[in-house]
Amino acid sequence: MIWAIYVLYEQVVEYVLCPSNLSNCFTSIIGVKQCCPLSQDSLFGIYINEVTNFIAYMGGNGVDLGGTQVNIFLSCSLTDDIVLLSKVEHALQRHHNVLYEFCTQRGLVANLGKTKVLIIHTHAHARNNVT
What we know:
The chain is an alpha+beta fold. Helices cover 36% and strands 14% of the residues. It folds into 2 domains: 1-35, no CATH class; 39-131, no CATH class. A hairpin with a 2-residue loop joins strand 3 (63-65) and strand 4. Helix 3 (50-58) packs across helix 4.
């Protein structure tokens, strides 16, 4: 899919509408075509969607949600928000390492300043021992 989009945008010829006529054509190497449904958010969504398969394959166990193993949530409103899920610390660290590897391979950078960890205890024994 990524290569199909790449070919679609490999040589975009554009014109500028001037008051009296159209300009000479020129090739654009940035941006998306006007009125194209492949906006920057859509393109990034297609690109980052690979991370779910990558983490499932490389990252190990997630959490069981209704009989389904879930390793990651991708935000549908803010395409750059990712939630990694795991039952144990070492598996969560593994998810984080795999996400870092995914980003590195694709030239992406994670903002570690915005990274947060939330630990939720669901067992009564763990809840009673939290101070």
